Amino acid sequence: MFESLIAAAVLSATQQGDGKSPMPSPWRDPGYMKLVWIQSPNFGHRPDGYVIDTVVIHSTVIPTLEKTTEAFQRESSQVSSHFTIGKDGSIVQNVSTYDRAWHAGVSKDFFGRDNVNHFSVGIELVNLNDGKDPYPQAQIDALHAILVVLKRRFPIKQLTSHEFIAKPYGRKNDPTIFPWEKLKDLGLPMYYGKPKDEK
Predict the structure, then answer these.
(1) pLDDT tens readout for residues 118-130
(2) Any domain includes 68
(3) 176 located within any domain
(4) Is residue 196, in this structure, part of any structural domain at all?
(5) Residue 17 CB coordination number (10 Å)
(6) Nearest-5° angle of CA 99, CA 107, CA 77?
(7) Treating both helix axes as pointing N-terminal to C-terminal, what angle do 137-153 and 2-14 enclose, rounded to 10 degrees?
(8) Does the residue 48 lie in any domain?
(9) For residue 78, what are the domain limits?
(10) pTM of this structure
(11) Could you give the number of structural domains in the chain?
């Protein structure tokens, strides 16, 4: 049920076009399993020939959904993701999944492919990434729902952490203490932690 609600919300957002949506004032988190689209200016078109087959999971390090969305609204930040999920399961879509968000940076995936932004969807989880801040079940529920929708839309073949793909290794370590086992039912290979080819 939740997956169908998320699917409808994502489709509606995608159909709105590329216009930049304003930040709500005053800010209010959308709520559990609810999505709003606040377009980031930090995105580009995917290069021809790339298939969207990867999802990269991140931690924001920024403590709130509002502050993260503000950061993605600043052109000077040069950073964005496709989705950001708050601790209560609120979802902000920042970039259309058909476009290239700027979330992975210098990167290489398990299969040796560089420029992971070209073929991935980036999902940010509001979390301090200090090894202590938990990922509430509501946040995991929303992530799971989005992943189910992405599996229907694209030939997703892997979930990976930002830590695993960031080059050089050690540049990023997110999402720290993320409970990957809660995504096992999706049946997707998951790559996180230190890549085996790193000494």
Answers:
(1) 999 999 999 999 9
(2) yes
(3) yes
(4) no
(5) 9
(6) 60
(7) 60
(8) yes
(9) 2-191
(10) 0.91
(11) 1
